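Two proteins were folded this term; both appear here.
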Amino acid sequence: MKLPNEEEIKKEISRGQKSLKSAKKLFEEGLLEDAISRSYYAVLHAAKAVLLSENVTVSSHEAVKRLFGMHLIKIGKIELKYSKILSEEQDERYLADYDVAFSPEPDRVEERIKAAEDFCDAMIGYLKKSGIESI
């Protein structure tokens, strides 16, 4: 069964995978704030893809977080820990992009990237269970 938004869902996942790959490369280069930012965008795009699979479209970062909780977490479709990852990634991205005094430790950045990878893998798994096989 093909979902109505399947092509857009695939594009969101692809964009998220590219962001995750960028986060890892930026981390390797020591560009820690940028790695955190890309890590967040990996999570954001994966969350948007899953929301699209529920026929929910979003237009802002805050809406992604709010609607992800409302449509997926509260009703038990996705584990609570993924809502926490989304929120933490968003908070860290804000610091990395806008707080010039923010200087994250490499361990902290590596933790964010691992959390983003876990999030993306879980969302891809959810989408495959929803009938989107070729992700």
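Next, the second protein.
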Amino acid sequence: MIQLDGSYGEGGGSLTRVALALSSLTGKEFTVNNIRAGRPNPGLKAQHLHAIKALTQLCNAETNDVDIGSTELHFKPGKIKSGKYDIDIGTAGSITLLLQALILPSLFAPSKVTLHIKGGTCGKWQASVDYLQNVLLPHVAKFAEKIELKVLKRGYYPKGGGEVQVEISPKIKLNNFDTVQQFLEEIELKVPKIDLVTQGNLEQIKGIVNVSSELETKKVGERITQSTERELKKYEVPIQIRVDYAKTQSVGGELLLWALYSTNDSIDFDNPTRLGSSALIEKGKTSEEIGKEAARDLQKEIDSGASVDRNLADQLIMFMGILPGSQINVRDVSNHAKTNMYIVEKFLNIGYKVEGTTIQSQKDL
């Protein structure tokens, strides 16, 4: 039984989400108390609760009685299954934060897993579904035969109403192995390590402005695009930003940007360098301010020489754990990343080495 203190590090929800993912993969039972103790409203939120409920189906897990606000969780996983799962968070609760607990075990199911999820597609203190689609999933693709995320509807705070569908066709199936150790050794043999230390050459900058249709008459998307392009033109590379207006239950939206790099005039599809940044469309912020905010955050990542942005670093820690010998270079090592390293080390026989802004995973000898 692994015992975890939810107040460790930054004391947020990622500790529980990462533990759920790794427990489901390794079959190791855990208990966590003081869940989200470092947040103004401690305890499980809607996205955490629905991740737990989904995993009781996806891997036949058993839990204690939990609800929104619960501060203790006992999680006992069974075997991972394939199939289609419908999940309705019921609020603008984050679809992407829920997926942080579900993607890892789904990658190694006996066959295809389809997740149809309703909730919020972007919001504060989270990577959006567009970020997952365009920055994270290109790194995760090497673990699967196919992984695809489709945005079916946009959903903004406070009403939500967004919908996405994620389809994952596994390449390496956990149930083909007698032990988890044999399975992990096969991953090491078959999947290229994560190697993101050298930034490479900036080739282009892409973006998506998704915004509720009520703001189309004010040309909010176009004004955000113009502001962004003015800020980033100094890099002298092509800039392509798409504007998507959508009918939504609440007014809102987001600008997502990502910079694409090459090494030796080619794109490394196993280890693509993509630096992301974003800014929410909110009351009290002009279109021009939103464009500047996301552009200037992206500039910080580009100018730092990093190969991985802060959000991506947090999310890759878990995947580096199942690929010891992986390494990434970041602008700075966040508390989120440090917390995630702590959790992964509890479930896997690996350790992390941090030297300056470089993070390495290595077998714990």
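The two ends are 22 Å apart (CA to CA). Residues 201-304 form a domain with the Dihydrodipicolinate Reductase; domain 2 fold (CATH 3.30.360.20). These notes refer to the second protein only.
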